[in-house]
Amino acid sequence: MANLLVTGGAGFIGGNFVHYWADNHPSDAMIVLDSLTYAGNASTIAGVEQAELVVGDIRDTALVEELLRDRSIDTVVHFAAESHVDRSITGPDAFIETNILGTNSLLKATRTVWLDEGNGKPHRFHHISTDEVYGSLDPEDPAFSETTPYQPNSPYSASKASSDHLVRAYHHTFGLEVTTSNCSNNYGPYQYPEKLIPLFLLNALHGRDLPIYGDGMNVRDWLHVEDHCRGIEACLLKGKPGETYNIGGGAELPNSAVIDNICMHVDLAFASFPGLAARFPDAPAAVGEPTAELKTFVTDRLGHDRRYAIDERKARAELNYMPLHTFDNGLALTLQWYLDNEDWWRPLIES
Predict the structure, then answer these.
(1) Which of 60, 76, 350 is nearest to 232 (CA)?
(2) Alpha carbons 141 and 345: distance in angstroms, whole number
(3) How do beta strands 252-254 and 219-224 pair?
(4) Where is the NAD(P)-binding domain (predicted)?
């Protein structure tokens, strides 16, 4: 039996991980530490009996130390982060505070309790990062590997790169048992509707514009969040301390193709389930019009990276990781989840 501290566990990826871990490791206990900012939602993990929510800030080192001692925590899974690039451009300070200082606070607390006060019991600090720390690729460049030099281009990715370096340093300097995973673009249930896929799904349902940055040809690798959770599980159970693993979805697509797929799936849903027209009368699909008519092009984002791609051969070889979801399958499941869980997302878009 393991005792986990899951930071940011009421957010999108963290919340999905809490559900995944509870389903697959029912004897383990989880403390979820989340400050419940705009992207944290207690309802995301409601009903998960193994998870206890503690509302608090990862920068509160004393609180983290107390939780580590009192709950005999042996595993920290660190999701808590500011993650929206647009927000990092307009307000970078919050990203420095949470992603850098917050990670440093967690590392200090785990070092104190596990190493300085510890009894030699095995422990693991797993840090979730992003492929954005590697910068931007040209069309013919090889995909990001674990040895790709860091070249972050936004305040968000720069803050995540800094936190990655801190985690690595605590391993090499102090002997903290850490692993890091750098993931590609996640999508799936419980994602806050500021990110591309949920934003465009909900805009399509309400007949709102689908704003496409630039020419729509920025390329990303898309990873269903359940596959990401499986990758994190593999890092925890099989990963070697001090190592980094890239976790990808094997679906490298330009934004324009992702948006076309969203439009297609929305149109198919309305054609298959006539009752949707009454629920979402403002959607073009409610009157038989194509969702694609909502597409509009807007000024590109500042410093918009052109292409990300993940080389996940190390994770496949050392962790036996493979994504199970195709993008088409994962997107269909995601749309269905949002259609079935209006009570979760409706308050978010009306607040």
Answers:
(1) 76
(2) 38
(3) antiparallel
(4) 5-332
DSSP state of 144: B
Instruction: Decide: helix, strand or coil at residue 131.
Output: helix
Q: Cα separation of 23 and 29, whole Å? A: 12
Any idea which residues carry the catalytic annotation? 131-132, 156
Return the structure tokens found at 90: 């307009």
pTM: 0.96
pLDDT in tens, 149-186: 999 999 999 999 999 999 999 999 999 999 999 999 99
3-state DSSP assignment of residue 85: helix
User: How far is 42 from 286, CA to CA, in rounded Å?
Assistant: 33
Distance CA 46, CA 182 (A): 28
Bridge partners (DSSP) listed for residue 71: none
57 SS3 class: coil
Of the candidates 155, 153, 180, the residue with the CA atom closest to the CA atom of residue 167: 180
Structural domains of the chain in order of their starting residue, each with its CATH number: 3-183+225-248+304-324 (3.40.50.720)
